[in-house]
Amino acid sequence: MAIIEDLPIIPLNSVLFPGAPTTLHIHEERYREMLQKVENGDGYFGVALLRAGKEVGGPGIPHDIGTIAHISEVAKLPDGSSMVLAMGGARFRIRAILSTMPVVHADVELIEDRAPTNGEDIFGVNAARSELVELMTLVLRTIGTNDAPLDVPNDPTQLSWAIAANLQMKLAQQQEILEMDTPGNRLSAVLPALRKEIRHYRVMAAARRKLETLGMVGTDDDSPFSRS
Length: 228
Fold this sequence. Notes:
Blueprint: E1 3-12, E2 21-26, H1 29-40, E3 44-53, E4 60-62, E5 65-76, E6 82-99, E7 104-111, H2 125-142, H3 156-165, H4 171-179, H5 183-213
Parallel strand pairs: 1-3
Antiparallel strand pairs: 1-7, 2-6, 3-4, 3-5, 5-6, 6-7
């Protein structure tokens, strides 16, 4: 396993999945300084679910397994804070925490999925992909648009992360999925939640169609399905 020494890590009340985007408002002075160093360096830092302590003001103790984040864009704000767009990369496991204040720094090892054992197949990949397409289509229909491109991966690993990133789940369940070591395990874990959300958005989409036939859905802010 590849080792990264002295990785800065932000403990958050959220889970970042590989391949998923995240937007962070960097406003604390300690994280402003961290951001500057990361920007001047390789552009990478760690994100991990907060295990104990505080997200703001710190110190915060992260879960052992988190995700490498790579900065895509930084927008500086007038008050000196920044909005940071980053993409989730490989997962990591903390080997040793070097410091907790002002920013968590740790030696970490990158995590790869376990190789499948003999007879261990991934079932239902095509069905899972079709269901994710349906969910994304229903969400777009509910907010009144059908023209956004649907980028749904075929690869089981990427698909399992894409489904997890598009679902509303409790943080503990998200962390459990992040720690799973095969795409088959992840797909089995996320499919019940995926199907539950599909049922929910089917109802929402049907309600929108009904309101459209009654002329009650528009683009104004008072519309119950407006994009805002």
